[in-house]
Write a structure and sequence with these properties.
Protein name: Alkylated DNA repair protein
Organism: Sinosporangium siamense
Shape: globular
CATH superfamily: Alpha-ketoglutarate-dependent dioxygenase AlkB-like
Structural class: alpha+beta
CATH architecture: Sandwich
Number of strands: 13
Largest sheet: 7 strands, antiparallel
Strand order of the largest sheet: 1-2-11-8-13-6-3
Keywords: Dioxygenase, Iron, Metal-binding, Oxidoreductase
Order of helices and strands: EEHEEEHEEEEEEEE
GO biological process, one term: oxidative RNA demethylation
Binding site for Fe cation: 132, 134, 188
Number of helices: 2
Number of domains: 1
CATH class: Mainly Beta
Length: 220
């Protein structure tokens, strides 16, 4: 797959040390291709679902994974909480996408970045994501986050607590957000989605897709 990235689009903004927002990074064509890929992964081998948490709560977002399966704060190769099948492979074109994303955010090459999993979350108009840390990986490599579809409020906090101080950022379709370095384990969440703000030309008629690439640090 060939990608034509728009380096330096928009007003690149460092939210916190290592946390960078790059508005409008993905072109419409690139968003369309990602929507097509996510739609294919959502049908299996492990389908998109609402994750059930250890205490019985159910996440309002729907999730599908590639590379490794995330379930209740751990990664496995098989989706034992869904259908027991091995998740779809993490494609090399997505790893290249991650490396290019880091270059756009940090203004330098990251040829050693080797993401091996992606969590794809779908938000309808009512879905939310509480403040949490991405800390189930055995790696401190940056997280690359891409948004497609409806706009949202993205709340980016600190590494110590779910509460203040935090910064609320508007993420629109095509936006890139990267967090690594001192901000790698910052709490973050999505308190609000704005239904009807996405462009149907992306191939997503409604809702928001968020694709986050990570390095698990796992083997096998």
């Amino acid at each position: 797959m060939r990608w034509n990235y728009r380096e330096g689009v928009g007003n690149v903004r460092e939210i916190a040390p290592g946390a960078v927002h790059v508005p409008g990074w993905l072109s419409m064509e690139e968003q369309q291709e990602l929507v097509r890929s996510c739609r294919a992964w959502a049908t299996g081998p492990v389908p998109m679902r609402h994750t059930v948490l250890p205490r019985g709560g159910v996440m309002s977002v729907q999730t599908v994974c590639v590379g490794w399966h995330w379930q209740s704060y751990r990664y496995t190769r098989t989706a034992d909480d869904v259908n027991g099948r091995v998740v779809a492979e993490f494609p090399e074109w997505m790893a290249e996408l991650g490396r290019r994303a880091l270059k756009a955010a940090y203004m330098r090459d990251h040829d050693d970045y080797r993401p091996d999993t992606a969590l794809i979350n779908f938000y309808d108009g009512q879905a939310r994501m509480g403040m949490h840390q991405d800390k189930d990986e055995r790696s401190g490599a940056p997280v690359v986050s891409l948004s497609i579809g409806d706009a949202c409020v993205f709340r980016f906090g600190n590494t110590e607590t779910r509460g203040r101080p935090y910064t609320d950022i508007g993420l629109d379709s095509g936006d890139l957000f990267v967090f690594g370095g001192p901000s790698r384990f910052a709490y973050h969440g999505v308190p609000k989605v704005f239904p009807g703000t996405g462009d149907p030309d992306t191939g997503l008629a409604s809702g928001r897709l968020n694709i986050t690439m990570r390095v698990t640090g796992l083997s096998g």
